[in-house]
Amino acid sequence: MMLVIVFGASFLAYNLQAYSSNPLSGFAESTAVNKEFLMAKVIRDLQLDVPPPIRYFSWLRGALGFLWGDFNLGLNREDIPVIDLLAQAIPVTIKLVISATILAIVLGISVGMITAIRQYSRFDYVMTFISFLLFSLPIFWVAVLLKEFMAIRFNDFLVNPQISTLTIIIASLFLGLVLAGFAGGTRLQFFLVLAGGAVFTAVTVTFMEFSNWFLEPSLGIFGVSFLALCNAAIVILLISGLESKKGRIAGLGTAVAITALYYPLQLLMSADASFINVVAIFSITISTGLAIGYAVSPIDRRVYTRIGLFTAFLSTFPLIIDRYLREFSDYLASDAVNGRPVPTIGQGKDLLTTKQSENFWISGLDTALHLILPTIALTLISFAGYVRFARGSLLEVLNMDYIRTARAKGLTERTVIVRHGMRNALLPLTTILVNDFAGLLGGAIITEGVFGWKGMGQLFNDAIRGYDMNLFMGVFVLGAFLTVIANLVADLLYGVVDPRIRIRK
Amino acid sequence: MSEKKPSIQADLKENEVRNVNRETLGLSQRQIVVRRFVSHKAAMASLITLIGIVITVFTATGFRLGFGSFGVTIPGWWPFSITDIDPEGAMASVCNGGVTGCPTLDLKPSFIDGDGIQFGMHPFGTDIIGTDYFALVVRGAQQSLMVMVIVSLLGIIVGTILGAIAGFFGGIVDAVLMRITDMFLVTPVILIGAVIGFKFGNLGVVPLALMLGFFSWMGLARFVRTEFLTLREREFVDAARVAGASNRRVIFKHILPNAMGIIIVVGTLLMSSAILIETGLSYLGFGIKPPDVSLGLLISEYQGTFNISPWLFWWPGALIVAIALCVNFIGDGLRDAFDPRQERNISRKDRSNARK
Predict the structure, then answer these.
(1) Beta carbons of B324 and A445 less than 8 Å apart
(2) Which H/E stretch holds residue A348?
């Protein structure tokens, strides 16, 4: 069935493209002497004398080749196999969209759920407005603004990193407000959190300014341990509640262990490290977390092991980010960068010396910096959808009878919301997630164009402008297949996560 | 939580239920929906803003009805058109140390900068060669609004018809129609839009919008089908059948009015995505082409001059955002209005509960 759908869609697209493009249009103003000959050559090469609906089948024979092991999407007009071009472009597009997608999902779902829990609060209203606003932004417009304000102004700022007092005050109040909005509570609690958050931000930013942090950033053992403790607190709050003593031991114990591992793990993060080292670091920290969680209590062992696992996993990120940050001053000083680290365009600097490009951390930092702007732009755009969806989904679940039952039997509010509410609210999200991954290709076309990445979007652009039939069909079929497979996976996955729905024969 | 007295709360709840009932007593469904929509402040504000934008945009520079050499041009009240060049006017307005063509719009009252509130000759400034930017932006907005309306109307008509047929008749008809829908659905709109736009972009906005609309009905068709599938099994449909109603009567008199909510809501969302797709395509060069103007085209043309003359970049973007935002808020208001489970009248209690 899937094949039939892709077949129909590709037939449609082939003819649409064939009838709307004219590869000979370039010859209209041509004054070449051998114009006739060149035109005849193009006609012969592209089989333009065959009507498109029939030409489609010669393309289809190659595309169906995977059935008998001879998959062939044809050559593009420069005689490069389309499959090779696609194979080069896919990783680029995935690299571009993956972090933005993950970030948008995590942020969107958490903000959406908080707005649902605090329905009709000011935080809810503000977030609703913001999500509508983000929903209405064209990505190319956001991209230009980001280039101006995030990249160019930030690079200018780095020349002489000094922050005015007014900026510090505004930033602190803003962050305090966000934190307080998240935390909610009575009016007194609200202002306490606001004040605490604002003072903390002000102190941190001032410290960063005076310690020349912006030119030589690093988290250090204190930063890593602080972030690990924060992670532990969030994980404990969500899984066992802060009042559980054993939960606290498991979470905070893991955070302390990560801090203790800070110096030993630096051995694994030398300049000649590779991706395997990162995997090794993650396995060490995660097994530590698991062990601590496991050792805490023989009763409810799974709960505490989970706390250890999640805390360790989340806290490894600061550890690794810290390593990247410590390369920043070297990177900044290098010739290719010349003191302007945030690029507005491109997917990587090829001017780095070989020594630098072989350094896992510097090349990683380079990629990360090139990803910053596209990631922020894509996150802002797709964030809104997740907020709306998660909010609606959780609100619907919280109105269910079983939530009332759970409250009635005396479960704590945390258990009711996390265990009974959030889990069920996440079910319909699986469908959305899978579909979004498939839809990313479409979104990538504009983003790649704006930020000058050479991925699927670029190929597609070339295909249309160059009247390149085979290339066009290659990109198209890949997109169509992704969508079809995503739908199938969504159906199957939904059956797995929701026992009420099983696929009926 | 602890100091609340359950009996009082129960009383309050009962009161509320009674209030809600009294509110909707003796009103038809349409009246209830309209009443709810009108009481949705954000949606009403958006509706008024959108109507304001539409009226301004379509009366200012005037527009052309008809095709080719046939048709009438309705004149507008704005003195400049997109082909008028006014270098003297552009030179007259200088700001930021020598940049010409700055916006003459001044919203600061006279006690701040002494000039007073004024529109001036070119309130949105002029572009590099001295074309009035208000005229350009208005022309672009006309195109975008037209795409929005045509795409959503076409999407609604095709989607409703196909979805209704599939959902009502079921069986083999349903299977075939849904496979066709899937076929269209696996083709990302922007890919198809680019192909279409590359071919039809220079023909003007209407062919482009028609083609885009032809590829954006799928979501609506699915929603309408689901709605028809459930409504078909309801008792009032059985009752109508027993009374001898024909298929046509059942569809148009009994099921369609009940599916109107979902159609209107999804149609509104279609509008806001249509404007974003059109501007995106024009930005990439696949949509409306010069010498005609579109908001996306203006942005792509002037993004490079952001540092020198930022207004060339701000105005078209702000207009896209304003239109899309208004449409989204209206859609939200409509969804609330059509949702019978939605409780309006957020009470003080709800607000204080929200803070717990």
Answers:
(1) no
(2) none
A–B interface: beta-carbon pairs under 8 A: 139
> Is the minimum CB–CB distance between B194 and chain A shorter than 8 Å?
yes
The answer to whether the beta carbons of residues B320 and B144 sit under 8 Å apart is yes
Grade residue B179 by pLDDT with cuts at 50, 70 and 90.
confident
Chain B, window 97-126: residues with a beta carbon less than 8 angstroms from a chain A beta carbon: none
CA separation for the pair A146, A377 (Å, rounded): 7
Predicted confidence (pLDDT) per residue in A94-128, tens digit: 888 888 888 888 899 988 888 888 887 888 888 88
Mean pLDDT, chain A, rounded, equals: 81
Tokens of B221: 């068709």
What CA–CA distance (Å, rounded) separates B251 from B242?
A: 15
Smallest CA-to-CA distance from A83 within A447, A383, A429, A475 is with: A475
Closest CA to B280 of A147, A449, A138, A463: A138
What is the distance between the alpha carbons of residues A424 and A421, in angstroms, rounded to a whole number?
A: 6
Which residues, numbered 466 to 505 in chain A, qualify as contacts with chain B under a Cβ-Cβ cut-off of 8 Å? 472, 475-476, 479-480, 483-484
Q: Which helix (H) or strand (E) holds B151?
A: helix B133-169
* CB distance A76 to A82 below 8 Å: yes
CA distance A60 to A66: 11
Angstrom distance (rounded) from CA A162 to CA A168 = 11
Length of chain B equals 356
pLDDT of residue B50: 92
Q: Give pLDDT tens digits for B269-316.
A: 888 888 888 888 888 888 777 777 888 888 888 877 777 777 788 888
| Predicted ipTM of the assembly | 0.79
List A residues 175-214 in contact with B (Cβ-Cβ < 8 A). Answer: 184-187, 190
A26 touches chain B (CB under 8 A): no
Task: Count the neighbouring beta carbons within 10 Å of the beta carbon of residue A31.
Answer: 6
Q: Which of residues 220-279 of B touch A (CB under 8 A)?
A: 272, 276, 279
Residues contacting residue B158 through CB under 8 Å, at least 6 positions apart:
B213, B214, B217, B221
B292, two tokens: 């005609």
Exposure string (b/e) for A290-309, b if CB count within 10 Å is 16 or more? bbbbbebbeeeeebbbbbbb
Contacts of B300 in chain A (CB under 8 A): 140
pLDDT score of B159: 92
The span from the CA of B157 to the CA of B165, in Å, is: 12
Region class of A78: left (phi > 0), else alpha (psi between -120 and 50), else beta = alpha
Please state at what angle helix A469-497 crosses helix A82-117, rounded to 10 degrees: 40
Q: Which of A11, A22, A136 has the highest number of chain B CBs within 10 A, making it the mutation to test binding with B?
A: A136
Interatomic CA distance for residues A312 and A306, integer angstroms: 10
Helix (H) or strand (E) holding A229: helix A220-239
Question: B296 with B208: CB under 8 angstroms?
Answer: no
Give the 3-state secondary structure of residue B100.
strand
User: What CA–CA distance (Å, rounded) separates A470 from A479?
Assistant: 14
Burial class (CB in 10 A: 0-12, 13-18, 19+), B9: exposed
Rounded to whole angstroms, how far apart are CA atoms A501 and B325? Answer: 37
pLDDT confidence tier of residue B5, bands split at 50, 70 and 90 = very low
Q: What is the dihedral of CA A235, A241, A242, A248, to 10 degrees?
A: -60
Residue B348 in contact with partner chain A when CB distance is under 8 A: no
Write out chain B residues lying below 8 Å of A394, CB-based. Answer: none
